[in-house]
Every structure is written in structure tokens, then in C-alpha cells.
Amino acid sequence: MERKNIWENYDHKQLKELEKINQEYRYFLDNGKTERECIDTIVNMIEEAGYVELAQFRKSGKQPQTGDKLYQVWMNKSIVMFQMGEEKLPCGMNILGAHIDSPRIDVKQNPLYEDSGLAYLDTHYYGGVKKYQWVTLPLAIHGVVVKKDGTTCIINVGEDEDDPVFFISDLLIHLSQEQLEKKAAKVIEGEALDIIIGNKPLLFDKKKDKEEKKDKAKDLVKQGILEILKKQYDMEEEDFISAELEVVPAGKAREAGFDRSMILAYGQDDRVCAFTSLRAMLDLGQTKRTVACILTDKEEIGSVGATGMQSRFFENTVAELMELCGEYSELSLRRCLASCCMLSSDVSSAYDPTYGSSFDKKNVAYLAGGLVLNKFTGSRGKSGSNDANAEYLGHLRAIFEKEKISFQTAELGKVDLGGGGTIAYILALYGMNVIDSGVAVLNMHAPYEATSKADVYEAYRGYKAFARGAEL
Q1: pTM
Q2: Could you tell me where in the chain the CATH 3.40.630.10 domains are found?
Q3: What Cα–Cα distance (Å) separates residue 160 from each residue in 45, 87, 163, 172, 237?
């Protein structure tokens, strides 16, 4: 089948809208480098558009009506939004689902130490990363510290021009003969990903009692860091125990290429699909079916935990919504979930000519090739795959053709090389129609990933068309 570069499809008006969507997307990336920051950004956007928190709506004593917009947040890391349609909920919903967590480096609970005049934070990487990609980069620290009294301190250091940044050291080339003989997976070990955060010892006023200096004589660089933390955040060393601190690349999302056709940024897997799903929700207009958007946590480590898709957060929230509508029963809930149509919106690997031998060129996504449909993911013999049925694919083709949405089909690399998973198989457990659908990404899981602006725009258009028109 012939593949066309979709930039050729757009008129002047569409190109202008494309740039506007991508500008908003870069803002979303810059302000949502962690799950918590994503949720804060999303809630601000949707409340401005008229969304009301489910618990607040419940207090009004009203029943949701067509066009009402409701949402619920779970543990500040996952969110589900609903725009009520004309049909009853047992008839099913159209669902857009994506994840807002990304590979990164997490700070451990007892992290601060000093070695040879350098202060470090001990870390544990999160998700699938090539560890050697993270050394010598300028890094930022984002997260929260929750103290014993329940107060929360927000940490965000390394993003402003005047902020300090942090880094992981690497061995100089002159001494790296043994290191370079190691396999890539072993060049940098996980325990070597500790970040350097200081080198200046705690300084004492000469007029102060000598006993104070004697008491703090050990690990003076560490002591200096603790003094800064106390002064700036009223934080003690023990407060690390109840902290969630994430280490991410410092800096803003950037346009890439002389033609500014791409975006280079951290966290595009899977915030590119999260943003385009969210933006589609905000621009829907009235719909026949209720439309839901799930933006969830923990996909990069198997969708586990209370904020991952394997929890019952979404199911419980749908039950709450049906109760508000006067439509709840256990059977009605099951009917609703089984009758849903869903796009599991997650990224796909873009063809990279430099590493062409890893791909099947006929069955791979291309930058500027349009929205990507992955009939199945999984690995090798489709292990762990959802594998959507032909009828559902035919239905989606009809929707996209009607709305002139450019799309492509793909697999994640050659059959025996590996693979990947998404949240699709979890939602498919309810018996609903689900397919993976997303944006092609170069450098997936690297500190900086690349997407095409055209694909971002086409994903937004495709998700909106699906949300308005899907029904089986």
C-alpha cells in the first residue's frame, strides 16, 4: 500500500490549526513532567472548559444530563473524564485511554550521602530505559515531600534558567578502555545512576563555638545540602522517607529540524496521546454516546498499583456515575463496559533508517504517516496482546474515511525482536472492542523523544472523530 506524507494534505487553515495544537502540546509537556504535574495541568484545563468533579456534582443532588462534563481524580496520579451523551450508559461509551507516566529516575527513600567530597542522591530507575542514555545530561528534580504533619512541599528544581541542575557522571574517554568492552546494558549499572547534587562543604562562622563545628565535622558537603533543604523547603533528612521525587531531563520541549516539523522533548511516551485525547475531549460538541477519557499511571511498569489501569478505579467511577444517573445495577454496569468502544492511545515505534534492520518496512509506522493503528502488540507470538478483531477495524476505517483522517497500520518491530504492551488488554477483559492507536515516536524511551507535528495534529483529529462516531 502506498504511504503518503500527510503534510501534503493540509490547507492553510489546517496548517494554522496544526501549529496552534502543537504549541499547546509543548506547553503541556513543559508543565507536566510528572504524573502529578500532568493531573494539575489537566484539571486546570478541564475546569476552565466546564468540567465538574464528580463528588462536587453529587452534592448538588442533580442527575447528569446530556452535555454535562464530569471528572474524577485518583491519588493525584490518574483521572477519568466524562462528557454525557444522549444515550443511556448501559448502551456503552466511547473511550479514549492513555497513560501519563514516562520512564525516569526515582529518588530512593534513604538517598542522601557523601563520597569523596561530592553529595549524591541514591536512585532507582523507573520503566524501560537504556541507562547509558541518562549520564552527563542536565537533570531536574520534580515531586513532593509530605511531612509527618501532613503538609506537602512541592519540589521543582532545574527548569528555570536561574535554577541549578543536576547530573550523573560518566568515566572520561581516556580511562574507559575496560568500560567500552562491556555490553551496552552493562556500561552503566543501575546503582551507578546516582545524581550529583553538591560539592560545597558547610561553612562555619569563625566566631561560633568550636564545638558546633566539631559536632558537624563529618560529611560537610552533605550537611551543606541539608542546610539548603531546611532553609528553602523546611525539610529534614528523614522527610525523604515520605517523598516522591522524580529525576527528569531539564529543559523545555523544542521544535526540531530547520523546517520546525518535529517536536523533541522528554515524556512524549505517552503524553503525546494523553494531550491529544484530552484536547479532543475539550472540542467534542454534543455526542450521541457518552465519551470517556482515561489518563492513567503506572503503564510503564505493567499498569499495576492503585493508580494503574489494573486497579478498579475506572470501573468504580463508572458505577458511581451510573448511580447518579439512576441507572446502576451490577448487570447494567457489566452491559455498559462490554458495549464500549475504545482507542487505547499509546505510541508506536517510528521507522528509523539508521536501524532499519530492526523493522519490517511494510508494517511499521512512519513519521508524518498519520494516526497509527496497532491491531496487536505483545511480543513474538503476540504474547500479552489484545489483538483487535476485523469487524472493529472495519468500523474504524469507515469513521476515519468519512472524516478524512489519515492513518497507518503498524507492528512494534520485527516479529522475534521483542515487542511491548499497553493498557488495551486490561480494558478488553470487560469484553469491549479495543485497539491500540497512537503516534509514531523516534527515540522511544530515551530522555528526548521525537514526534512529527503532523502526527500530533492527526491524532487529535482522529480521536475526536472516533469519540463522536464510534458505535458497534
Answers
A1: 0.94
A2: 6-102+266-469
A3: 23, 48, 5, 29, 25
Residue range(s) of every CATH 2.30.250.10 domain in the chain: 104-249
Residues 230 and 248: their CA atoms lie apart, in Å, by 23
The Cα 312–Cα 101 span in angstroms is 18
For 174, left (φ over 0), alpha (ψ -120 to 50), or beta? alpha
Structurally, what CATH architecture does the domain formed by 6-102+266-469 represent?
3-Layer(aba) Sandwich (3.40)
Instruction: Provide the H-helix boundaries in 188-283.
Output: 210-215, 220-233, 268-282
pLDDT digits (tens, 9 = 90+) for 17-51: 999 999 999 999 999 999 999 999 999 999 999 99
Topology of domain 104-249 in CATH is Aminopeptidase i, Domain 2 (2.30.250)
Q: What pLDDT, in 10s, does the model give residues 75-124?
A: 999 999 999 999 999 999 999 999 999 999 999 999 999 999 999 999 99
One-letter identity of residue 300: E
